[in-house]
Amino acid sequence: MSDARISVPAKIAPGEAFEVRVQVRHAMETGYRTDDAGKAIARNVIRTFTCRYGGETVFAARMSSGIAANPYLRFFVTARASGELTFDWIDDSGARGSDRIAVTVG
Amino acid sequence: MSAAGEAEGGAVTMVAAHARVRRRLLQAAGALALIACGPARAADGVLPAIPELTKFLALRSPRWERIRLDLPRLADNGFAVPMRVTVAGPFAPGPFVRTIAVFAETNPVPDLAVFEFPQPLERIEIDTRIRLAGTQQVVVVAELTDGSLLAAAMEVVVTLAGCMDGT
Lengths: 106, 167
Known about the structure:
The complex is a heterodimer of chains A (106) and B (167).
Chain A: E1 4-7, E2 17-24, E3 46-53, E4 56-63, E5 72-78, E6 83-91, E7 96-103
Antiparallel strand pairs in A: 1-2, 2-5, 3-4, 3-6, 6-7
Chain B: H1 3-9, H2 16-37, H3 51-57, E1 67-70, E2 74-75, E3 81-87, E4 97-104, E5 111-116, E6 124-130, E7 136-144, E8 149-158
Parallel strand pairs in B: 2-8
Antiparallel strand pairs in B: 1-3, 3-6, 4-5, 4-7, 7-8
Helix pairs in contact in B: 1-2
């Protein structure tokens, strides 16, 4: 499952804080909705979202149903060296997702 | 000063004294309106009573500075309200931002999100989209590595609450 769109700048200078934008495709079910038969739809939101840079966690988000569907996150990471950003997330149903993007510094 | 005063200046055939009194009243009203509209971005220093927020603060009181919360004053749709949280740097020698917590006063789940920065970061700017169940105060609190807290709050008027079944 890799339902995410990620973007980082093409050129990053060393030491610069660069923008990371992520959007994960996920319904972020609140648990307050009902289906057509009137049955409650179980809550299912992405609980934790982690961004690692060269293996070290640089950003994490603990989310609730208060984050809109298809959660979008934009944050900054300080550039050190070329490498990879890896993203991992897990939802209430236990489903895990992950994605990665290469970062070119220099 | 006030447009009201000028518009009033165009009014005709009134007893001079009466006009003067009226102008003063209008100017005062204009000034009051400005005051009322100005700081819509926070009843600074007054935190809404949210149990989750009280727990997060743990009897510490935040300073109302350096952190900035950007939200639309009026959100047509509470399902996805764009939010930006910025903490003004530089942080370099001193304490860095460790966590930022977001709270919404009347949401069924008031603690919307916690953002964590395990490593010192020079630029703290977070964008996301939140759900809001009706008109309410949104509060962000940043905790620094020295344990001090920075807070900002803002009221958002929501026309369509983000918790109902939209279908």
